[in-house]
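hey all, quick one before standup. I had two proteins in the batch that finished overnight and I want to keep them in one place so we stop losing track of which output belongs to which input. First protein below, input sequence then structure tokens straight from the run.
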Amino acid sequence: MDKLNLDDIFSDPIFEELIAETPKKQVKRIDPEFEKFQEIIEWIKNHDGKEPEKSRDMTERKLFSRLKGYRDKPEMIKKLAEIDELNLLDSQNTILENPIKNPESLDDILNDDTLFEKKDKVDSLLDLSRYKRTINAADKYSVRKRASHFERYEPLFKLVQKEIANGTRKIIPVDTEKNIIPGKFYIDNGILLYVLSVGDYYIDKNGYRNAKLHLIYENGTENKGILLRSFASNLFDNTRHGRMVTEVMSDVMGETTVEERAAEYLTTGYIYVVKSLSSNLEISKYQNLYKIGFASGSVEKRISNAENEATYLYAPVKIVATWEVQNFSGRKLETAMHHIFADKQLQISVPTANGKIENPKEWYIISLDEIEENINDIIVKLNI
């Protein structure tokens, strides 16, 4: 080959490509409002589903004011909807307003179709921090709604998380969309999900096999209309970190089902009774004054900050009884107890450090024997 001179090099068309300026990659920045709203979500998760209030804790007061500000602005509600996994900004959602309908009788409470619905959010085994990223494809969220009867599926998610933790199941990459079948679990954008059903297969306009899926998500939402091809693209999208959860061998062999194993044992929380250790004479004068409450996790942890919370009368408390609640809503059981003892509720006002007045509602003047008798009676009825 002849040796090239400079003129030959400069006139070569490839040279133009070599010296052309490489386009700068556009950096996608996280909206600060998403960061701020995520901070509220994380705080609520770390406090057993309790929303921030106007307390003496400055962090809690700040988050309370921020959440109130978001709820007052329609444009912020619309903007943050895609990461509002707890439905905090949905004015029609019971998690936001938490209205308590006064039942007419104990049977009304026990026959409520939300009896098995557990409202409290539990800490997820999986990382939800990826909600901080924004996704341009808005259609991926448009048909996801709050799941009806989520209480039927929540035990499955808890069991699968436990099996992932103990090594019974593995989290692996998705190798082909043919592995997207009913009864299997996947992870999309950090959220564990369950394929409840797959509709009839058909050939779409692009010549690909497609079908309509019904997905249930760990955060209590569902998608009844997402297409197989769209879901597969989500799982294969590197930015969404899609994964597949392996099955349990006994399920594959037909010896068991995840539904059967999930129903064997599920603790939804604890009903507890505590007695105040307050030195305030207006409180200590009552010999049979008890608070009946619910904790989704450790009762000891729940009461560890009692002297700083109005619900505990700003004083330490002593645990006198606890009940582990299995396979039905502990929150609903708590509501039933409060209804039964409504006429024994202590009407009390507690001044806070900032001069406001709190009115704790869960304290009752009643004997411990009567509490035990009634809660045991409810549990018997629930198991009939």
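OK second protein, same deal, sequence then tokens:
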Amino acid sequence: MAAEREVLTWELFGAASRDLAQEVADGGYRPDLILSIARGGLFVAGALGYALDVKNLHVMNVEFYTGVDERLDLPVMLPPVPNAIDLSGAKVLVADDVADTGATLKLVRDFCADHVADVRCAVIYEKPHSTVKCEYVWRRTDRWINFPWSTEPPVVAGRVLDA
């Protein structure tokens, strides 16, 4: 991991998400829905939804990162998993904050592939080693990224959910 970090402020995120939306629009892609990869993709999907005038937003919860440069062996879909019938025949724009290894985006793209008319990915950042090359990227970097929504520690202690 590089010692220097990419720092995305809230103000820069506003400009980045608008530029990303413009890239999608300029490319002629008109998604029917935006599928957000939670959690970081929620911010991106919301901003893209407004900029592209797409009100149909869906969420897919995927766990992969457990800390800075620490991750599970494979990404895991967490409930509730979107119903494939809700995506049927749609043009889907998958939104996330970063394509790092590409494993999370691949999981989501593969989930969509058999059900949708077309699936494309939009991210704020893409790392050079990502196995998924996104159609829409604001910036490429090999640095660790400090996002405004995840740089500060939680205001509450970690929670354990009852089974």
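Flagging for whoever picks this up: Residues 10-26 form the longest helix (17 residues). The chain has a mean pLDDT of 89.
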